[in-house]
């Protein structure tokens, strides 16, 4: 009985690890958007680095409507947006540090 329980536990752990790996792969950017995204619809960004399941570096732009757009960090327009968002954070930080 103990041997069967241990085998079942090992199989469950193996199955869960495969599912977790597949789930993380689903959240990866696999290709970049082709067009430019207007700054007016962007509220933030995150960065994806190449990992086991994510095969490209990407800047993920988060829109005000809740979409995530995969962009190429080597594109100037992408880095311009990142720079503007960082400037916004610095302005907010300075305001709060004066209080």
From TrEMBL:
Signal peptide annotation: 1-25
A Gene Ontology molecular function term of the record: chemokine activity
Any GO BP: immune response
Keyword vocabulary terms for this entry: Chemotaxis, Cytokine, Disulfide bond, Inflammatory response, Secreted, Signal
Location in or out of the cell: Secreted
Main location: secreted
Keyword set includes Nucleus: no
Domain Chemokine interleukin-8-like positions: 25-85
GO CC terms in record: extracellular space
Taxonomy, superkingdom: Eukaryota
Family: Belongs to the intercrine beta (chemokine CC) family.
Protein name: C-C motif chemokine
């Amino acid at each position: 009985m103990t041997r069967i329980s241990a085998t079942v536990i090992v199989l469950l752990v193996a199955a869960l690890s495969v599912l977790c790996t597949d789930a993380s792969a689903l959240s990866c950017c696999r290709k970049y958007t082709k067009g430019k995204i207007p700054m007016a619809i962007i509220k933030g960004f995150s960065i994806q680095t190449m990992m086991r399941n994510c095969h490209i570096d990407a800047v993920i732009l988060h829109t005000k409507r809740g979409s995530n757009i995969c962009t190429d960090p080597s594109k100037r327009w992408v880095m311009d947006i990142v720079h503007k968002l960082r400037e916004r954070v610095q302005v907010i930080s300075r305001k709060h540090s004066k209080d």
